[in-house]
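Researcher: Let's do a round of design. I'm pasting the structure tokens now; please hold your answer until I've finished.
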């Protein structure tokens, strides 16, 4: 009797153990299936990233969206209109050398130096590159450079930042060619070469100097030009009636708004406190 009871107990425990083992096997198989599904999902999610990092096309044939170019985002507003700069200034020569910049002599000094006898200088004899030099169209100016990532106001012109891309530097130097010309409605649209420029003609000329625009555009066209939002180096502000641009922290504009000098025509000016009322665009990549 005791042997039969013991045998029955052992049989019951073995049956329970077998049931437990079966349950464990099922649980392990379920866990394995779950881990396999997770691994597959992670591999699928990693495919677009892998394609993007190698320059390929993501799964499904979709092309990854270009990311915003790396680099500093130049300011587009300023609390004060000060553009004072007292740091070093350099000039890029025609041979590509970068040398310290020597500003032209002041008008009085030039007169004294060229006319030691006190005579009257010939018309148009102001020093090359000076704002007092009579000009009738875009005029070559010294290609000024300053250290850092911001453009600086130097003797009425803009000095391009040394750390900026070549296209940005070219935009700055192109803008300098217009300084001293008058505002002319429609100027700079029939041709990039004009005796005067309007707002969008000025922006067009500067962008053309950076090899970013082949045909002049008006302010309405600039509302859809390039890419949306603020650029890293160059930002264009446009609406149906006006357009201007900021380049590495300076504003190129025909309007004297928020400019204490109140000078008219194409000029480098301080940044405005705000740019409300304008569509904001920028050159792709800049």
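Researcher: That's everything. Go ahead.
Model: Designed sequence:
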């Amino acid at each position: 009797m005791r042997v039969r009871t013991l045998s029955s107990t052992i049989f019951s425990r073995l049956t329970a153990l077998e049931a437990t083992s079966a349950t464990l096997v099922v649980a392990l198989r379920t866990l394995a299936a779950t881990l396999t599904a997770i691994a597959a999902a992670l591999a699928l999610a990693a495919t677009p990233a892998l394609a993007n990092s190698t320059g390929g096309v993501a799964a499904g044939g979709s092309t990854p969206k270009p990311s915003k170019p790396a680099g500093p985002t130049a300011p587009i507003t300023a609390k004060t209109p000060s553009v004072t700069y007292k740091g070093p200034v350099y000039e890029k020569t025609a041979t590509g050398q970068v040398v310290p910049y020597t500003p032209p002599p002041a008008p009085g000094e030039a007169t004294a130096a060229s006319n030691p006898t006190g005579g009257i200088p010939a018309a148009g004899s102001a020093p090359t590159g000076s704002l007092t030099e009579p000009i009738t169209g875009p005029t070559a100016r010294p290609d000024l450079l300053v250290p850092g990532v911001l453009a600086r106001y130097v003797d009425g012109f803009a000095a391009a930042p040394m750390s900026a891309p070549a296209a940005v530097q070219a935009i700055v130097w192109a803008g300098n060619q217009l300084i001293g010309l008058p505002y002319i409605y429609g100027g700079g649209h029939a041709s990039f070469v004009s005796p005067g420029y309007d707002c969008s003609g000025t922006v067009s000329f500067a962008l053309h100097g950076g090899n970013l625009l082949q045909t002049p555009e008006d302010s309405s066209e600039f509302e859809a030009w390039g890419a949306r939002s603020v650029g890293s180096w160059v930002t264009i502000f446009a609406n149906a009636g006006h357009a201007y641009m900021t380049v590495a922290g300076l504003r190129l504009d025909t309007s004297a708004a928020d400019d204490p000098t109140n000078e008219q025509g194409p000029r480098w000016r301080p940044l405005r406190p705000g740019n409300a009322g304008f569509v904001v665009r920028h050159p792709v990549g800049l």
